[in-house]
Amino acid sequence: MPVIYIDADACPVKDETLRVAERHGLKTYLVSDGGIRPPASPLAQLIIVAQGADAADDWIAEHITTGDIAVTNDIPLAARCLEKDAKAIRPNGEPFTESAIGLNLANRELMAGLRETGEITGGPRPFSKADRSRFLSALETMAQAAVRR
After folding, report:
1. Could you read off the pLDDT of 1-43 as tens digits, one per residue?
2. H or E element: which one contains 45?
3. What does the alpha-carbon distance between residue 46 and residue 50 come to, in Å, rounded to a whole number?
4. Where along the chain do its domains lie?
5. Which residue has the higher pLDDT, 100 or 86?
């Protein structure tokens, strides 16, 4: 059975992910460097990693395998998951794909450079109800496909 990994620090769709996981009987790991409450689901496990910029990402990348699903906004982590033939999805419901991950990484670097020079000062748009709804639909589809695999 596939496993779901949540890059849990600042993830706005933890509860939604757990609902989909429970519906399909999927083990779920919430990976964090602390500060989140343990999940109530018997299928979910909280993993606390050492404090550090990429500690949660590294743990997920080391444990994820073919057919598993990662919920993350982190593009480099998504790329590492795709390299292991796993799936990755953003909290807004947008799946990361092999065909687009290179462009995603390049755009990330470009935007970081523009922020450093002050060309761009704003952040991403606020997370919306529509984002949450798209996520639920996309994760449900992804989970069904993973279970059938």
Report:
1. 999 999 998 899 999 999 999 999 999 999 999 889 888 899 9
2. strand 44-48
3. 13
4. 4-148
5. 86
Q: Rounded CA gap, 38 and 12, in Å?
A: 15
For 6, the 3-state DSSP assignment is: strand
CATH tag, 4-148: 3.40.50
The terminus-to-terminus CA distance of the chain in angstroms comes to 9
For 91, residues 6+ apart whose C-beta sits below 8 A from its C-beta are: 11, 12, 13, 71, 73, 127, 131, 135
Closest to 15 (Cα-Cα) out of 108, 135, 101: 135
Cβ distance 61 to 46 under 8 Å? no
